[in-house]
Write a structure and sequence with these properties.
heterodimer; A: about 450 residues; alpha/beta; D-Maltodextrin-Binding Protein, domain 2; 2 domains; 5-stranded mixed beta sheet; 3-stranded antiparallel beta sheet; 10 strands; globular; B: about 325 residues; mainly alpha; MetI-like fold; two-stranded antiparallel ribbon; about 70% helix; about 0% strand; flat; MetI-like_sf (chain B); MetI-like (chain B); cell membrane (chain B); transport (chain B); Sugar ABC transporter permease (chain B)
Chain lengths: ~450, ~325
């Protein structure tokens, strides 16, 4: 038997230990909105605007600092406060900021976020500013149209300052040595993986991204293989189309046989490291990783090629693979914020940015620059984007849980198929069901 | 408990009123002293706990505010009836806690007993033994992920040289070895905690008890069972309880080494909550899962303290 006091004491002790430790991992996101310094509209008075960089890295931060310096020199009355956010946590930082109405004046925003942020009324429509600006005739019209098309109200909420494209990076020296043809179709792609694998020498034909972000890679390859739209004419999602099942079955069966064992947990870094350290002959990423490869591999030993074509010979690319400058509704200095957005999209700034990051400029004035003419990876990107036959498919970025379905269901699902715990068909069925349920809920809410 | 302890009453024969006022003031002073801690606890412990309970009854997703609404018990019903991840992740949590706490206690005890002996450079050995505890979680995970690496890891290298394996293994990438690999990494980090606390406790056991046991003819093993263990009982109960709660909520090594993968093989309940709430920003459902794990730990802690007769001889 226990004494009553002891009973009470041990319960309190237990409660306090458990609750104290449980909270160790909790974070409060209840930040209060902060007002900007002054609220004038007179363009001569000094103002400070805040700019959020959604993909900060040691390579990119100095570029932004340079662009900001040039902007401040040209606009002495505007002071830009630069805030760095690592890519991994950028979406959740924006989410929390929007929920707390504590957004920056202007920010770098991925195209896939535009529909959601605009529904949440976080962004300012830029149509008027854009139509009255010189940029109107200079920024890639199809990218602007795409940004309008994906939002609920058809307005322009972001000006794309860089585009990207998924491609395959290959080791040209290894291909020449082995006498293997650079793959243009999926059959050639699979054959190249097989032929380039030489396990005895620690070489693999390809590396699969099985860890974080693997879902994006797989989705883009699936649609490049099938050439289908994301949704069929009946409104049903095409994720579990038999063509996709066929592709995923074959593609993931190459794991371990022709790709490294550690692929199942491969994230971006590991995957790129596999290519750059001479373990794999091919890697699927985008033109933006040019800078990384250039650092580790000798010029002339690597290059990029488009994703293989569909059976009927078409290139396929995922729409919305761009990054934009957006102005937030909470800004008290919309004119100053727009000026900055305009500056980032000027030929000068876009040229500096895109040359160093290896991405595709959207300002047509930059296209004549020498570096654009000489960059093999940029040429490949134009070859795909400017080909009239190229098919752009549009994933439902507007679904609020689009991203979390990919992260929490599809990423682990890929690992389950790779480790043989699940069939490709079951995996794609689950993925399709999740997208369909989410879409149904969305359509009901917005009475589509 | 009397709060006037330590505040001797003055014996000045002033007017009665002044005297009473003074007593009143003296009674108030201790409350003033504990007020800051009380406010801090209220603000940083009870308020956040309250919000977690509140959000567990809501549909609350910061990335989809247009769906936010009162959910009642829907989140909890979903956890127990429709969530395919709940039971597997709870089982992983149990496996994780039992293996971690059990192994850490055993090895921590062995280490504490060794370090309690008298030998040359004992101070240095003690300091070295506690290093893993002082290393940050992120650093430890980076270190272990390199050691487990398939292509350049020291573990593969050693096992190959010893002839135990023929080709390098990707320990963290296989569903059959990932869990064990992370258990070993966390074990390395957790042993010093038990060693430190048990060693402190060992040092407070009076030598006379061992002498008496020796006089009675007890062997070393018997004096460990009948003298050392009973003397360490309260420390063991409290440290294991703390460690169970810690390990249950532990997420840093798992997060960094495997991220819950491959194929959910290392997804514990806490890892699952981190994925849902922090990555997926679904704070409503994440809060409901947190309330459930809070309940599980609370029931465990109460039962554990009672059944183990903590603080009772």
């Amino acid at each position: 038997m226990f004494m009553k006091r002891g009973k009470y004491k041990s319960s309190i002790l237990a409660f306090s230990i458990v609750s104290g430790l449980l909270l160790a991992g909790c974070n409060g996101d209840d930040e209060k909105p902060s007002a900007s310094t002054d609220s004038n509209s007179n363009s001569d008075e000094p103002v400070t605007i805040t700019f959020w960089d959604e993909n900060a890295s040691p390579e990119r931060t100095p570029l932004w600092e340079e662009i900001i310096k040039q902007f401040e020199d040209a606009n002495p009355n505007i002071d830009v406060e630069y805030v760095v956010i690592p890519n991994k946590s950028a979406k959740s930082k924006y989410d929390a900021a929007i929920a707390a109405n504590d957004t920056p004046d202007v920010g770098s925003v991925q195209t896939t976020w535009l529909p959601e942020f605009s529904i949440r009324e976080a962004l300012m429509p830029l149509d008027e500013y854009f139509d009255g600006s010189e940029l109107k005739d200079k920024i890639n019209a199809s990218a602007i149209e795409f940004n309008k098309k994906i939002t609920q109200d058809g307005k322009l909420y972001g000006i794309p300052y860089a585009q990207n494209l998924d491609t395959i990076w290959i080791r040209t020296d290894w291909f020449e040595e082995a006498g293997v043809k650079e793959p243009e179709t999926f059959d050639e792609f699979f054959t190249a993986i097989e032929k380039m694998t030489d396990k005895d020498n620690g070489r693999y034909g390809y590396t699969i991204r099985g860890g974080a972000g693997g879902s994006f890679q797989l989705q883009r390859l699936m649609f490049a293989y099938s050439g289908l739209d994301y949704f069929g004419e009946d409104g049903k999602v095409n994720i579990n189309d038999p063509k996709h099942v066929e592709f995923v079955e074959k593609y993931l069966s190459y794991y371990e046989e022709f790709t490294p064992k550690s692929d199942i947990t491969n994230g971006y870094k590991e995957m790129i490291a596999g290519f750059d350290t001479g373990v794999v002959a091919m890697v699927h990423h985008n033109v933006g990783s040019y800078g990384e490869h250039k650092k580790s591999l000798e010029e002339g030993t690597f290059k990029t090629i488009p994703l293989p074509k569909t059976e009927d010979g078409k290139y396929v690319a995922e729409g919305g693979n761009a990054v934009n400058i957006a102005v937030f509704n909470s800004t008290e200095h919309p004119d100053a914020a727009w000026k900055f957005a305009e500056f980032v999209n000027s030929a000068e700034a876009q040229s500096l940015w895109n040359e160093s990051t290896g991405q595709i400029p959207t300002n047509t004035d930059v296209l004549d620059d020498e570096w654009v003419q000489n960059a093999q990876h940029i040429k490949v990107a134009f070859e795909v984007y400017e080909n009239p036959e190229t098919k752009l498919y549009e994933p439902p970025f507007y679904l609020p849980d689009y991203r979390s379905i990919l992260d929490n269901l599809v990423d682990p699902g890929i690992q389950q198929v790779m480790s043989g715990q699940k069939s490709a068909k079951d995996f794609l069925d689950e993925w399709a069901t999740a997208i369909e349920e989410s879409k149904e809920k969305y359509d009901q809410t917005f009475n589509k | 408990m009397s709060y006037s302890q330590g505040f001797p009453e003055t014996s000045v024969n002033n007017k009665d009123v002044v005297h009473k006022k003074k007593i009143k003031k003296e009674k108030l002073v201790p409350y003033l002293f504990i007020l800051p801690s009380f406010l801090i606890i209220l603000g940083f412990l009870f308020y956040p706990i309250g919000t977690v309970f509140y959000y567990s009854l809501q549909n609350y997703d910061v990335s989809a505010p247009y769906y936010n609404s009162f959910a009642g018990l829907d989140n909890f019903i979903k956890i127990f009836t429709a969530d395919e991840m709940f039971i597997p992740s709870l089982i992983n949590s149990l496996k994780w806690v039992v293996s971690e706490v059990g192994l850490q206690l055993v090895f921590g005890m062995i280490l504490a007993l060794l370090l309690n002996q008298t030998f040359k450079f004992r101070g240095l050995a003690r300091a070295a033994a506690f290093i893993p505890w002082a290393i940050s979680g992120v650093l430890a995970s980076v270190m272990w992920s390199m050691m487990f690496n398939e292509h350049m890891g020291v573990i593969n290298d050693m096992l190959m040289k010893l002839g135990i394996i023929n080709e390098p293994m990707a320990f963290l990438a296989s569903t059959s070895t990932a869990f064990g690999a992370v258990v070993i990494a966390e074990l390395w980090r957790g042993i010093p905690f038990f060693a430190i606390t048990l060693l402190a406790s060992l040092q407070s056991i009076p030598n006379e008890l061992y002498e008496a046991a020796r006089v009675d003819g007890a062997s070393r093993w018997k004096s460990f069972i009948y003298v050392t263990l009973p003397q360490l009982k309260n420390t063991i109960i409290l440290t294991t309880l703390l460690r169970v709660v810690w390990e249950f909520n532990n997420v840093d090594l798992l997060f960094n080494l495997t991220g819950g993968g491959p194929a959910h093989s290392t997804t514990t309940l806490t890892m699952y909550i981190a994925d849902l709430a922090v990555h997926g920003s679904n704070f409503g459902y994440g809060s409901a899962l947190t309330v459930v794990s809070f309940g599980i730990l609370l029931i465990f802690a109460i039962l554990y303290l009672r059944l183990s007769r903590y603080e009772k001889e």
